[in-house]
């Protein structure tokens, strides 16, 4: 870092490229971690709700969907711009098929849909339990807090996307 002529802190050009490479790599790591967390939650549900056959099948379907979403997100990141270096180096003239903000928005929408499904699965199962209504309500409320957290997450992503520049 150094001070520019107007007194602001600035990044040396040779460090800026490295920074862009790290940001691009972090997007791949983030997609991987999101997929693994969702799969681990689904595997936990599989152990928790092992008695219900329809739930087990739906969980395996959702695991497969998470793997496909992860693969498509990663493939989309890797093939967004040609040549590949144009993804993170603005000096390289390349063709980007999709803007970074549009790609990020699409991935966010898909992830929000999967997250809502992850919250709804246990609520549906709790409804079928043979326990008193108060306990059902309490358990549904506990799992339903996930929807509140998801709404908060969507708001955070929405605010960050408004500031995102291509």
UniProtKB/TrEMBL annotation:
It is a multi-pass membrane protein. It comes from the Eukaryota. Residues 20-148 form the Rhodopsin domain. It is found in: Membrane. The chain crosses the membrane at residues 21-45, 57-81, 102-125. Keywords: Membrane, Transmembrane, Transmembrane helix. InterPro entries: Rhodopsin_dom_fungi (IPR049326), SAT4-like (IPR052337). Pfam families: Fung_rhodopsin. Belongs to the SAT4 family. This is Rhodopsin domain-containing protein. It comes from Paraconiothyrium brasiliense.
């Amino acid at each position: 870092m150094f001070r520019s002529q107007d007194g602001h802190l600035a990044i040396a050009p040779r460090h800026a490229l490295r920074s862009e490479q790290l940001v691009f790599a972090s997007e791949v790591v983030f997609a991987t971690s999101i997929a693994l967390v969702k799969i681990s939650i689904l595997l936990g549900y599989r152990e928790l709700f092992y008695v219900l056959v329809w739930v087990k099948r739906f969980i395996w379907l959702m695991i497969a969907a998470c793997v496909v979403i992860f693969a498509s997100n990663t493939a989309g990141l890797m093939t967004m711009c040609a040549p590949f270096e144009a993804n993170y180096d603005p000096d390289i003239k390349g063709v980007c098929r999709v803007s970074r903000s549009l790609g990020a928005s699409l991935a966010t929408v898909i992830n929000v849909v999967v997250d809502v499904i992850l919250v709804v699965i246990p609520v549906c199962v709790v409804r079928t339990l043979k326990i008193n209504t108060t306990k059902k309500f309490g358990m549904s409320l506990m799992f339903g807090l996930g929807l509140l957290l998801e709404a908060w997450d969507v708001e955070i992503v929405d605010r960050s996307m408004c500031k995102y520049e291509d």
